[in-house]
Design brief:
With about 750 residues, this protein is an alpha+beta fold. The protein is built from 14 helices and 32 strands.
Amino acid sequence: MTDSSAITVTVCPHCDTKIVGQALKCSSCGRFLEPQASEDRLTMPTQETAGQKAAPEVAMGGAADAPVRGASEPPPPPSGNLQEISDERESWFPQGPDPLIGYVVAGRYRILECIGRGGMGVVYKVEHTEIGKLLALKLLAGELCREREVVRRFKREALLASRLSHPNSVQVFDFGISDGLTFIVMELVTGQDLARVIKLSGTMPIDRLGRIMVQVCSSLAEAHGIGIVHRDLKPENILIARTKEGNDLAKVLDFGLAKLREAPELNDVTGSGSVVGTPYYMAPEQICGKPVDGRADIYALGAVMYKALTGETLFLGSTPMAVFTRHLTEPPVPPQERNPRAAITDGMSAIVMKALAKAPEDRYQRVEELQAALIDQLGGLGQSSVEILLNSTQLAALNADALQGPEPEPDDASRTGMARTLVRPQVATRDEVEAFKRKLSRQRWMGTALLVAVALGFMYGGLRFYKRATAKPAFDGFEREPNNQIHEALGTPLGVEVHGQIGKRIDQEHGDRDFYRVAVPPDVRVLSIDLKPLPNMPLCMWVYRSGQPNPMAKLCGGRPGVALSVPAYRVEPDTYALSIMQDRDPYGASAPPFVLENISDSYTLKLAPATPDPAFEVEPDDAPPVAVPIAIGGEVKGRFGWTDDVDVVCLKPSAGPQRARWVVVDAAERPRDRGAVLQVTPANGARPGVGIRVHRMDLSHKAAADDLISPWKSDPFDASAGSPTNCLTLRLTLDPWAGSDAPLTPPVSSEQWVIRVEAVP
């Protein structure tokens, strides 16, 4: 019997493609799947069996989950001290539909699911379409991909990392750029990272930690030998796999990727004092920006061992700069004193303290010296089997054993996502990938020779046939199915209406959605957006920027029949993908709405270049850096184009001392729909940060002190302070006096707000 918590892998009866999860259509050939016997299916335990909730699946080649925006939002940023933030910053997984699921990168890596994310990018589990084996693929973050120097450095570092072949290093098989996505393909490791091991155990026994560190030293020795310094060693970058006998196999990942952050605009410490990565394991010379060598990795290993032995990081602080300062100036407390209850020997404590010397010349000069000291310490503890960890042949066998090892315990799911539970025989090895590359090289050579021969005889006819076969259908103003996935997006020119339908749903939980692709040229910086609605369902438009897996904007109407109309929306020259779908946000209801369909009515979408009105807002303007500017005596207007739209207006500072006040007029032409009221929150005045509800007409019902009549005038304030001191934040909110039958969310409408600034004598 198949476990109810297992993922089903279905084999398409038409093209033999493997499809992960429940799907009605094949992601390769697009034909409907037929019911299959249980022996035609493979199962693999999901992340729930590892004690962690798995991200929702998306049927590859079919429709993705209709979004429930309330459930798909990532959790809020963690609060608390620096330690808590660093422990949680990369632990969450996206819960909404990922548009890259099912996409084939570089023609051979089919994305199956997102298994992790961090400061460098997103990690996916992928299937090699030619050899049918599983690997890990990391997509670099968008800000990295757009820097030409960073991409050049990435190629150099990835090429060096691909030369690492030690069994204690995560193997790099491939890298490159495809369709604007910068990627690196790695070995998919089953197990958990060292941070998770420490978190579960509190502290680690010396013998187990020593055997793990001996293996890490072997990995670093190979890397240092060819000039690679890791630069970002931390427990999260050390994976621990388990063999059938329960032995630990350590594997180090992300060699050289930290060096990509060396560009001035992407360096470790920004001008504001924020840190890319964690500061707990950085050597003093790295903090100071000096050239680093392998001794910086030795310092990081010392800090990792300190954490594993004591259960606490070497130095703590409320800010990154506080931690850096302690690394530079404060001598570490010996591990034995930091945690007297742990069984830490004098020898092990001395090894850690030498690795943590402030000056590089006072540490172990080569990682092999640190490894020898660890082996001597383990020998004194009676660990006679350490030699197997130094024999590359035996380690390779141990590595193969770990890949074929037992299923992890239910809580053995790595927090970073690099160690998801897998069907072991499906994991690709270096030999299999290299064999495919050799086969591909031979096929390319033979194919080239054949093409040359054919071209000599049939060049003219072949070119004509190629042009006819590859010509894309002309845009006719109507969507073309299937376009449920981002790689199926319909190219749509600016300034032209496109008609589409939210057609038949896939099932009760999967609705139709339509992807469109829009190219914004260099001379266009502002677009107008018009989405005319359907009568029976509210619509959303999610906007994705090229190379970004997550939407940069979510514009939703909130109610059936509500149009999305934004006169001016600020953009950068690039390629964007737009996804039109049913808005399934419950907006305070007990459950999300049913998945709807409409095969008779069409929506229309039009994006066009726009020239903004100087007296009207340009979206997005939800924060002081992008706020609508206004001068004393000036006037600006705006409106709320979608649910949750927030507008900010900031006063330009006066040349000298001067006093002024805000004047807010709302919905002068006609009142807002019942249940909606304008909320104005000033950043200055007697009650800064307190929202004021501005009603259009006399209040005939009960009102509070925060309910005022339009026009509202603020108390006078000093106009010379400038933004963000003199700013107003505007949003729609629920009218608390509208009655229990009022809508659960403020209805979006076309009524305008008007802001003026009057000089006060």
